[in-house]
Amino acid sequence: MLSDFPCNECGLCCSNINGISELQDYDQGDGVCKYLKDNKCQIYENRPEVCRVNIMYQKHFSSTFTKEAFYIENLKICRELQSNFGIPTNKLIKLDYIDKKQE
Ligand code: SF4
Ligand code: SF4
């Protein structure tokens, strides 16, 4: 079991927030969150719930997913975003955990 979500800080989720209704007011107009600076969240300690994977899990998904299954679904989205935006293969978020589970 992963102890925490293994984000590799690519920043792509925060720079593609168009379509996320909860973050409508955060979009600076081009899909990039106005609080993303130098690839870091400037309001990290106070970021909204939708940006917090563990809180989202606890509040909205724990009755339908195990935590590891929820992490896996999120990791797949990270990987898809990273592939779509041309992140080099050696910098893609590791899916070893998923691969191991699917062996
Ligand atoms: S897309 Fe995934 S790996 Fe990249 S910053 Fe967001 S959560 Fe982290
Ligand atoms: S508030 Fe922070 S974590 Fe949430 S999308 Fe903006 S930069 Fe990313």
UniProtKB/TrEMBL annotation:
InterPro entries: Puta_zinc/iron-chelating_dom. This is YkgJ family cysteine cluster protein. It comes from Paenibacillus cremeus. It comes from the Bacteria.
